[in-house]
Design brief:
The complex is a heterodimer of chains A (225) and B (338). With 225 residues, chain A is an alpha/beta fold. Chain A has two domains: 116 residues, Rossmann fold; 95 residues, Winged helix-like DNA-binding domain superfamily/Winged helix DNA-binding domain (Arc Repressor Mutant, subunit A, Orthogonal Bundle), CATH 1.10.10.10. Chain A is built from eight helices and 14 strands. In chain A, helix 6 packs across helix 8. Chain A is elongated and about 55 Å long. The two termini of chain A are 19 Å apart. Chain B is an alpha+beta fold and 338 residues long. Chain B has three domains: 88 residues; 67 residues, Helix Hairpins; 138 residues, Histidine kinase-like ATPase, C-terminal domain (Heat Shock Protein 90). Chain B contains eight helices and seven strands. In chain B, helix 1 packs antiparallel against helix 2, helix 5 packs parallel to helix 6 and helix 6 packs antiparallel against helix 8. The radius of gyration of chain B is 35 Å and the shape is elongated. Classes of the chains: A alpha/beta (225), B alpha+beta (338). Chains A and B meet through helix 1 and helix 4 of A and helix 3, helix 4, helix 5, strand 2 and helix 6 of B.
């Protein structure tokens, strides 16, 4: 996976790239927005890591403008300003995620993986979380060589959770994704589907991978990571 | 005890003196005009006439003039001070850290303007000084982030058990800086007087719990949200309240042992809180932590107290309170209803 890191502090950019490369990403560095434009013209990137304050302009403004006239890969906005308003600003401008400096490479890598699991232009057909693999075209799930038998709805549920692995998926999001308007959703339909899926995952030695956050939703998480 | 100088009393005293002098002058005039002599005072009829004359020409005019003048004078003074009393009330109503507060001079009598103007100038200079101080703190916090990011990334490449410990220290510093930035932003937002928005506490709690859950699971702990009864909407600044709840959760996670659950709850009423499996924070200790950090003469090791002081400040800005129920191991955010 190819990542473009847009960051004006060269040493910081270099260190981030070193860390990301250790974790299997191949990276290019752009020290300014004009470099980023050149890089994007000559290569296709799977994701961008974008700093907000750059010598030749504001990252968020650049992102919003670029989104208007070309296809942009998903972007993670990185900022030192931090906290309250920036996040809203960044997400409004078309950033897909947001991290506050000083960010850990581990966290950045996790966010990138999560971002790349989302359905999109270059979405892969196989989604992986740890040793769990889901083929989105054939609707099959495997742990190693072992196939997990899933109903249509369980497969949809697993795909949804895996695409957002590492993040909490809200109950109402699952309800909306799994049941259409005309279907009567009983209050515990989601719970029932989750517990069936959890049992199947546990039978496939994936214990603890699917957790309930009571009152909020569910999270699928690679327990090894 | 010395009696304080009072404009009303001085007026009465002054008018009393004017009355006395007036009475004496009038009396002299009457004596001169009617050619009264001491011999008149001996005869019965003449005495009666003398008394009548003095009553008619001295006491009556003095009373007729002095009483309304006194009443009018006192009323003018009272009315002149009403705007000052109003100003005093509005100054008293200022809680804590509002910026941009000025005395309303539109109703002030001209004579009071130099005073209120001077007070307003002082308030403005204080605001400016506070703003500069905060901007400086925010700048420092901001500038610290890049070297911290470098430090943490360099450490990332060192495969040594000590590097891990150092990374822990860097993380603690990062938390402190985040808290300082938050504090600066709350104050900046308060001074900018951004209009509050309608906030659903349940939705806000769900957002916060979703955000923090992955990191809490990584630590081998759990988090859950309970919604109890009816929860009315409140008005306020969403990101600030979310930050307050996040701070409480972080605090609770720190004291909850591995395998334990941090419980966030909302309602009944405009109430949000966090229950943990730690020892509970007694009311005195909470007050102490909050107060000490307000005075900024104390620094705790991991910024826990600073975090709570910030929560307290966010709550004060929303006219709410941060309280502790140590026996239930709860920290509660209580918002005003409606």
């Amino acid at each position: 996976m190819r990542i473009l890191v847009i960051e004006d502090n060269e040493r910081l950019a270099r260190l981030m790239v070193d860390g990301l490369q250790l974790r299997g990403f191949s990276c290019d560095i752009a020290l300014r927005l004009s470099d980023a434009d050149d890089a994007m013209a000559s290569a296709i990137y799977d994701a961008i890591i974008l700093d907000l304050g750059l010598p030749d302009g504001d990252g968020v403004a650049w992102l919003a403008a670029s989104r208007r006239y070309r296809d942009m890969p998903p972007a993670i906005v990185q900022t030192a300003r931090g906290a309250l308003e920036d996040r809203v600003l960044g997400l409004d401008a078309g950033a897909d995620d947001y991290v506050v400096k000083p960010v850990e490479v581990e966290e950045l890598a996790a966010r990138l993986r999560a971002l790349l699991r989302r359905p999109g232009l270059r979405a892969q057909t196989v989604v992986e979380v740890g040793s769990l693999r889901f083929d989105t075209a054939r609707r099959t799930a495997h742990v190693g060589d072992l196939e997990i038998e899933l109903s249509r709805r369980e497969a949809d549920l697993l795909e949804l959770l895996m695409r957002r692995a590492g993040a909490v998926v809200r109950r109402e999001v699952i309800e909306n994704a799994l049941y259409n308007f005309h279907e009567q959703v009983t209050p515990n339909a989601v719970e029932a589907a989750i517990s069936r899926l959890r049992r199947k995952l546990e039978d496939a030695r994936m214990r603890g991978v699917l957790q309930t956050i009571r009152g909020v939703g569910y999270i699928l998480k690679d327990t090894a990571a | 005890m010395m009696r304080r100088n009072s404009v009303s009393r001085r007026l009465i005293r002054g008018l009393g003196q004017v009355g006395l002098v007036g009475t004496l002058l009038l009396l002299a005039a009457v004596v001169f005009f009617y050619r009264l002599t001491f011999s008149h005072l001996e005869a019965g009829a003449a005495l009666q006439r003398a008394i009548l004359e003095s009553l008619e020409h001295v006491a009556l005019p003095v009373v007729v003039l002095m009483v309304p003048v006194t009443i009018l004078g006192l009323r003018v003074i009272r009315q002149a001070f009403v705007p000052l009393e109003d100003a005093a009330r509005s100054i008293k109503a200022v809680k804590g850290h509002e910026r941009g507060f000025r005395i309303d001079t539109s109703q002030m009598p001209e004579e009071a303007l130099p005073f209120t103007g001077a007070v307003n100038d002082l308030l403005e200079r204080l605001d400016e000084a506070a703003k500069r101080q905060e901007a400086f703190a925010a700048d420092v916090a901001h500038e610290l982030r890049t070297p911290l990011a470098l430090l943490s990334l360099e450490l990332d490449q060192i495969d040594h058990p000590r590097a891990l410990r150092l990374k822990g220290d860097v993380a603690a510093m990062r938390r402190l800086i985040d808290q300082l930035m938050l504090l600066a932003q709350i104050d900046a937002a308060a001074s900018a007087q951004i209009a509050p928005e309608q906030i659903g506490l349940v939705e806000l709690a769900r957002d916060v719990v979703s955000q923090v859950a992955p990191a809490i699971l990584d630590e081998g702990k759990m988090i859950a949200l309970d919604v109890n009864g009816e929860v009315p909407g409140i008005r306020g600044r969403k990101e600030a309240i979310a930050a307050a709840l996040r701070n409480l959760v972080e605090n609770a996670v720190r004291v909850t042992p591995a395998g334990g659950t941090v419980q966030v709850f909302v309602g009944p009423g405009a109430v949000m809180g966090v229950r943990d499996e730690g020892p509970g924070l007694d009311v005195e200790r909470l007050r102490d932590l909050v107060r000490r950090h307000r005075r900024a003469d104390h620094a705790s090791k991991n910024g826990a107290g600073l975090g709570l002081a910030i929560v307290d400040r966010i709550m004060a800005a929303h006219e709410g309170v941060l309280t502790s129920n140590p026996d239930r191991r709860e920290l509660v955010l209580q918002f005003p209803e409606g």
